[in-house]
Design brief:
Length: 388
């Protein structure tokens, strides 16, 4: 990557690092259990989060395309800061649900926005985005490194005070907001501001549903997205079931949360359908280990493998979709895809909550089934790519 491009992207990369430096992610379920919420209650909270994200996902993407993508990232940081303070102050399910609702706004405003910013900056600076996979991989890798460090620190801080982990998160969030304010938005995305809102919204949806191959690609993203989210949201439930100490939550969480981001560094190697199918089979085997095993270290290894593989596949499919979207609708179209994925995830989360309240090991079979579906969809993608 040229020095001029790297200099332009530097605030975005640093902003990603600090926005991902969240100290309470690794001890969240411990905190929730400490205020009297069971596994089913945790699933209900996850559904509330999904509803919040779904309702704001598409509007936030259109706002980013029409107003300012860096402004959307600043708002994402603001919402994360507010939700962190509210969550730490919670002492019942209703207060925590309110905090999670605000976190959903953070998720909606940040999801897909960074990738769109990178793609358009490459187009503006170079006239092409052939190195987008590498640039996106670096972006996500930095986020993964931040998650590894912050989850490890969060577990250590949680040994002394769960509340402190929430409050200290405000510092890196503020730094991320400053970085995004410094970043210079690409002008190529501003051409959409002259288009009428209703027409823009219609064209955003048309971009997503315009071809059969794009629909299969979107289906693949949704399945891998569900596997990744369920693994990230529920991994701590296995540790609770296995009576693991709090420090394990931090150490294991740092790898599970962080290595999902580091999966971005593998994107450039995912250049064949066969490799992607093999990775999906690996997802199934790791999910099987979660369902039938009761050894803590095997459980952690399986969850880390799911995090890395799902992260790599998700970034790969995201990159493929970015290549097929026009700049003026890039963030909004990505938001449509994310919203559909969350709609699919909502009933799955409810079923997972019901099953995990009986046994989290039984609930793990849902990941096995989803991994099988991922293999099937990628075979369909290969059919679409093959000449008729």
């Amino acid at each position: 990557m040229k020095k001029a491009v790297m200099k332009r992207l530097l605030p975005l990369y640093v902003g990603k690092f600090f926005l991902s430096f969240v100290l309470w992610y690794s001890i969240e379920k411990l905190f929730i259990r400490s205020i009297g919420i069971d596994n089913f209650g945790i699933s209900l909270i996850a559904i509330i989060l999904l509803i919040s994200s779904i309702l704001t996902e598409i509007p936030s993407g259109i706002i980013a395309d029409r107003w300012s993508r860096k402004g959307s990232m600043v708002l994402a940081g603001l919402f994360l800061g507010i939700s962190s303070l509210m969550a730490g102050a919670s002492d019942n399910i209703f207060m925590y649900a309110a905090a999670v609702t605000i976190w959903g706004l953070h998720d909606a405003f940040s999801s897909g926005t960074g990738a769109a910013m990178i793609y358009d900056t490459l187009l503006e600076e170079q006239g092409h985005a052939r190195n987008f996979n590498r640039a996106l991989g670096l972006y996500e890798t930095l986020g993964g490194i931040a998650l590894i460090i912050s989850n490890f620190l969060g577990g250590w801080i949680g040994e002394h005070s769960l509340l402190l982990a929430f409050n200290l998160t405000i510092v890196p969030i503020a730094m991320s907001m400053v970085c995004h304010l410094i970043y210079k938005d690409a002008k190529i995305s501003r051409e959409v501001a002259d288009e009428k809102l209703i027409k823009h919204t219609k064209n955003t949806f048309k971009c997503v549903f315009k071809s059969k191959s794009l629909l299969w690609l979107m289906t693949a993203i949704m399945i891998v997205f569900c596997i990744q989210k369920m693994n990230r949201e529920a991994y701590q439930l296995w540790y609770i079931a296995l009576s693991a100490p709090a420090i394990v939550f931090g150490i294991a969480g740092s790898f599970i949360e962080g290595l999902g981001g580091l999966g971005g560094s593998l994107v450039k190697y995912l250049n064949s359908k066969q490799i992607n199918i093999v990775l999906s089979i690996l997802l199934g085997l790791a999910s099987l280990a979660l369902s039938v095993g009761s050894n803590l270290w095997i459980t952690i290894a399986a969850q880390v493998l799911i995090a890395v593989v799902s992260g790599a596949l998700l970034f790969h499919f995201t990159a493929q979709i970015q290549h097929q979207l026009p700049s003026r609708y890039r963030t909004g179209s990505g938001s449509v895809i994310n919203a559909v994925g969350r709609i699919v995830l909502m009933p799955l989360t409810f079923v997972f909550g019901v099953l995990s309240n009986q046994s989290v090991f039984i609930a793990g079979w849902m990941l096995v089934v989803l991994s099988g579906l991922a293999v099937f969809v990628q075979l369909k993608l290969e059919e679409q790519a093959s000449p008729q």
